[in-house]
Amino acid sequence: MDTATPGRGWLLRLVLTFSFAQAAVSMARPAVSYRALALGADERAVGVITAVYALLPLLVAVPLGRRTDRGRCAPLLVAGVALITGGCALSGVADSLPAMAAWSGVMGLGHLCFVIGAQSIVARRSAPADRDRTFGHFTIGASLGQLIGPAAAGLVVSGHDGAMAATSATALLAAGALAALSYASLWRLEQRVPKDGAAAGTARDRTKAAERTSVRGILRTRGVAAGIFMSLAVLSATDILTAYLPVIGEDRGIAPATVGLLLSLRAVATVACRLVMTPMIRLVGRTALMAGSCALAGLLCAGLALPAPVWALAVMLGVLGFCLGVGQPLSMTTVVQAAPAGARSTALALRLTGNRLGQVAAPATAGLLAGLAGTAAPFAMLGVLLLGSAAVAARPKSRRSGSPRPERTTGAPRGTDGPPLPAPGDGTRATR
């Protein structure tokens, strides 16, 4: 059954799978930008293609979350890897900007399927007290992928002057092959529920609970909206950095290989942040950590808009990567702890919907700003967005503590996605 289990073998396999899938996406996205530029795209067109990556996922995230609340998570991982593989490979053979945009959307849909399934597995199999640490370790997979992917893209695209169309296509085909390697560790991540009467009754109860919980009710639960907005801001920052650092590199004469190394440096710093997440929470508290990291990240993003030498960019991106490492795992925990137990996958899907909304609106706005005010303007926009998320993250501190409020025990048997008996501090019900 999908319970809070002490073993970590499943988590290691999930991190490895996520690393391959995220590396493929992180390699493909700069390659898509370079290939679009080679096919004649300007800054606005790059923004549109980047936004299409998130458009289709924006429409289907909540239905997929509802489906996951009622059933298994693992099939979404299998489908997600297949869509990522196909989207990357077909982007590599596309010879027009509309085709590039379409296959970018397929890639985005695959990433959404994978992430909903993976996050739901983590939420179901982690004890409430361990969720900050477990989600932090889980997102190391994303950071490792973001470390490998951009550097690999930069190395493949560089070194062949005048042949960017061909080298970017090669990078996209290689990203498709990298995504397919995810299947090597995609096994036994989710245990099957025994088909006995008690388990069937529990599954029916969970389905009914999920159906009774409205999307509006989830969003109105204290802490959910703040977690969603913080996640949106942090992911938008990561997304625009990945898509627009190649553009600003071209504008300032920075080689693609150097741009790839700068993006990988940001990812290394994010991994380092997540390895020390638990001590930082103990030291300063969850709310202060979330608000402070977003505020500093906002200032650093605004600083990227200024003309600076490569070494200064490297310093800023290293510190920025460390700050951005906080937002994703803690926003996951915030949303899961606040949401009703029978609707956690839907709540995570709403968080991803917010992410994709940001990935649609932020790149499109960034493309418009870049066209009007230059390639540095998107980074100034990110600074404003992250400072706003810091203000939102700090607001709950005056109304409640930085950690979820303990709930009263009921003595009721557990469902398939919770611990055997609710205990003080479980936090599986909405904090009201």
Q: SS-based structural class? A: mainly alpha
Radius of gyration: 21 Å
Low-confidence stretches: 1-6, 196-203, 396-432
Distance between the termini: 29 Å
How would a crystallographer describe the biggest sheet?
A: none
Give the proportion of residues in helices. over 70%
Helix segment tally:
15
Write down the overall mean pLDDT. 77
Strand content: under 5%
Sum up the overall morphology in one term. globular
DSSP E strands, number:
0
Q: What is the helix/strand order?
A: HHHHHHHHHHHHHHH
Description:
By secondary structure, this protein is mainly alpha-helical. The chain has helices spanning 9-38, 43-70, 74-93, 97-125, 131-157, 164-180, 197-212, 215-220, 224-252, 256-275, 277-284, 286-304, 310-338, 344-373, 377-394. Helix 14 packs antiparallel against helix 15 (377-394). It is globular, with a radius of gyration of 21 Å. 58% of the residues are buried. Residues 1-6, 196-203 and 396-432 have low confidence and may be disordered.
